[in-house]
Design brief:
alpha+beta; Pnp Oxidase, Chain A; seven-stranded antiparallel β-sheet; three-stranded antiparallel β-sheet; 4 helices; about 15% helix; NADH-dep_flavin_reductase; Flavin reductase family protein; Flavin_Rdtase-like_dom
Length: about 160
């Protein structure tokens, strides 16, 4: 079996667009900084996002039936850090107090000044090893200013 630390080190060399995946259910909001997300289809419009399945707080994504994928700009590093989970004192309320959050169609929190935000109806959730894969049909889109993208590579933020 392959050593997980070797795998993580190799994957750290892979550039990923920094995004915050969000949801809301019964008055509770959840958001997580991720880099594993992509387009699945353009007809119908569908995206996927991957996040840690072992975190019990992420169960809300299966309960809510919707999520938003919010792509960050280079000037949103503070927001990326807030939603990363690195600071245990950063509550969900404090996270969502940062940024300009709204809603489009499904009720998932949408970052209104994201480079692009995809408001999705959850079509499928699949747990694969350590992560859950959310597949969503895009029900609404919001685009912000065309600014440089925030990327994560070599265990640090970069921009294009």
């Amino acid at each position: 079996m392959l050593d997980p630390s070797l795998y993580r080190d190799a994957m750290s060399r892979y550039a990923g667009h920094v995004q915050i995946v969000t949801t809301a259910h019964e008055g509770e909001k959840r958001g997580v900084t991720i880099t594993a997300a992509c387009s699945v289809s353009d007809n119908p419009a569908m995206v996927l996002a991957c996040l840690n399945a072992s975190n019990p707080n992420n169960a809300i994504f299966s309960k809510s039936g919707h999520f938003a994928l919010n792509s960050l700009s280079a000037d949103q590093v503070e927001l990326a850090n807030a939603f990363s989970g690195r600071d245990p004192a950063m509550t969900s309320e404090k996270r969502f107090a940062m940024g300009n959050w709204g809603e489009l169609v499904t009720g998932a929190p949408v970052l209104m000044d994201a480079r692009a935000a995809f408001d999705c109806r959850l079509v499928e959730l699949k747990v694969m090893a350590t992560h859950m894969i959310l597949i969503g049909e895009v029900m609404g889109i919001s685009t912000g200013e065309h600014k440089p993208a925030l990327l994560y590579m070599d265990r640090g933020y970069h921009t294009l």
